[in-house]
Amino acid sequence: MVEIVRSTVLDAPLEAVWQLLRDFATAVPIPVADAVGALEGGKDAASVGASRIAGPWRERLIELDERNHSLRTCLVDSPLPLYGYVARQQLRRITDGEGTFWQWRASFATDPYREADLVARVADEVIAAGFATIRARVARTRASSSLPSVSRVARASAPVARREEGPIETSLVMVSRHGGPEVLENAQANVLPPGPGQVRVRQTAIGLNYIDVYCRTGAYPLLTPPGTPGMEAAGQVIDVGDGVVGFLPGDRVVYAAPPVGAYAGVRNVTADSLVIIPDGIDDETAAAAMLKGLSAEYLLNRVHRVRAGDRVLVHSAAGGVGLLLCQWAKKLGAVVLGTVSTPDKARLAREHGCDYPIISRGTDFLKPVQDATKGKGCDVVYDGIGRASFLESFEALAPLGHLVSYGQASGALAPFDPAILSRKSASLSRPVLFHYTANPETLRAMAANLFAAIGEGLRASPRQRYKLSDAARAHRDLEGRRTVGASVLVP
Amino acid sequence: MPRVYVSSVIDAPAERVWAEIRDFNALPRWVPAVAESRIEGNAPGDQVGCVRAFTLKDGGALREKLLALSDFDYAVSYSILESPMGVSNYVATLRLAPVTDGERCFAEWTAEFECEPARAEDLVERIGRGVFQPAFDELKKKFGRR
Ligand SMILES: NC(=O)c1ccc[n+]([C@@H]2O[C@H](COP(=O)([O-])OP(=O)(O)OC[C@H]3O[C@@H](n4cnc5c(N)ncnc54)[C@H](OP(=O)(O)O)[C@@H]3O)[C@@H](O)[C@H]2O)c1
């Protein structure tokens, strides 16, 4: 719960200010709405319990005290996550002059990573704007010395929850049959207004992921041609569909979730999979970091809980997920071993916290791992290579070790006998990010951890940038092992 | 019950004004009507329950007890134990509140008491105009313009 207290002094007698303030229908702007709303049920006088509506906002008067010159309101509906929002306003007479002291307290709870932003918005767009509105009306009333006007009050600086009408044309990438990079074709399409629960996003950066390759080839049944690949992007909210809470036009958002369709300039996304990008993280970093960073978050904290001193082996250590796993595991105090295919990648992995980079192409890493761990093996192995490395990864485990097979860049796992696990009481996991992020609450918590880690220095910016129309080249580079770290496609 | 209410705006942040007035023994510094003051039993001036004995410039002597002190709300409450004013059940509260859109604060001083009905109006006037308002004027002078 945060509390915001703001106060000001108006050069007008208390009675004049109170008369404007107590008229709930017209007095104080509803948070962030562009204009004062209508009273619900066509009531003309404000009574305690009355609600007024402005766009997606509904505010209720829950206390009015004529003796004390105070009132209290709460938000019943809000498109922003202002949970339990209650505001109290209080006037006091200044007896040695003509003025009035006006204090406004608002309290609410919200997601930790949005707190600073929402505190600023409530302070500026609600309270300061409310002060300014009434101050102007007091001045006007006094100038014309007539009765206070009760017309709608437009505010100068508030964002307007505008709805874009109609479809928006966009360029995108289409796959009309499964195959190699050549099946990625550039096309144009119209994006309809968002349906219920959806948000239409103008994307500024799209994350390139190995899963996009599996979708293109048909290795994962996530894209049925014709369709558009891609599961990760950042951008700005254009408009929102019915029932969407927590997003307004102009908000910067990012997502990493099925269904496919991210390789586009504009698209509709389910609101539940969207997360607001904190200030201080740019769109390209958000698009580069979301899927791979959430993966590192759940692989290191949820699939296996890495602790200080653990020996951790990261395959493809200079890859998108790899560089994040190395940095984050190091921060958790682990001893980090990694496999990479070239000396340049080894250098890069080392710069990102990998203590023992091992040059290998998915095989022949067992001996170096044994040497580096004095024969003990690793407590956990993160294997995104799949078929080529699986058995050797198992051999690299310490007794009671955990093999986390989370990808298959070299092909699907060959059949094997689970009884081999008994040789060292080993565990095997085959986790998928989207199962961990299916619950929006968990997604928000994971994203908050990721953003905090970036704030504390986790390097997650993209290291390759392609035009969206160059998606085929991007795929060739990724599969040809020519990329390091993360890559983004820019529409 | 007669009630005194005096309020003002002082050109300094609340915490600076509070630092000036929070000591229960500091009246002579900022209340012009007060000549001298001491705390009985040598207690510190912020010990809730302590009693200040002070004399007015017109010779009157009073004893007041500190009932509540809040550094969080910038508020102090006290009652009169003995005075020449002929009041009973006298409780007063002085409170500061920041004015957040400037380097100022709002100050208000209330008092409630019982007395002979015929004297009520005169007492409210004497306390409000004669004691509280001059004290605020003194603070305004100390803390700059206005
Ligand atoms: N299960 C999940 O939740 C989840 C989530 C995210 C990612 N993943 C998986 O994690 C892995 C990494 O994803 P990413 O997007 O960050 O990709 P990436 O690691 O940046 O790119 C692939 C890298 O894998 C290595 N590689 C090893 N064998 C390969 C082969 N046969 N063909 C091509 N490359 C090979 C290459 O590095 P070297 O040159 O150093 O060998 C290459 O640079 C993928 O398998 C992906 O599917 C899984």
Structure description:
The complex is a heterodimer of chains A (about 500) and B (about 150). Chain A is an alpha/beta fold. Chain A has three domains: about 1-155, 2-Layer Sandwich (Alpha-D-Glucose-1,6-Bisphosphate, Chain A, domain 4); about 170-290 and about 465-490, Quinone Oxidoreductase, Chain A, domain 1 (Alpha-Beta Complex), CATH 3.90.180; about 310-430, NAD(P)-binding Rossmann-like Domain (Rossmann fold, 3-Layer(aba) Sandwich), CATH 3.40.50.720. Chain A contains eleven helices and 22 strands. Residues about 30-35 and about 145-160 of chain A have low confidence and may be disordered. With about 150 residues, chain B is of the alpha+beta class. Chain B has a single domain (about 5-140), classed as START domain (Alpha-D-Glucose-1,6-Bisphosphate, Chain A, domain 4, 2-Layer Sandwich). Chain B has helices at about 15-20, 25-30, 120-140; strands at about 5-10, 35-40, 50-55, 60-70, 75-80, 90-100, 105-115. The interface between A and B is medium-sized, with 16 and 18 residues. The structure holds NADP nicotinamide-adenine-dinucleotide phosphate. NADP nicotinamide-adenine-dinucleotide phosphate binds near residues 318, 320, 361 and 483 of chain A. NADP nicotinamide-adenine-dinucleotide phosphate binds near residues 209, 210, 322 and 361 of chain A.
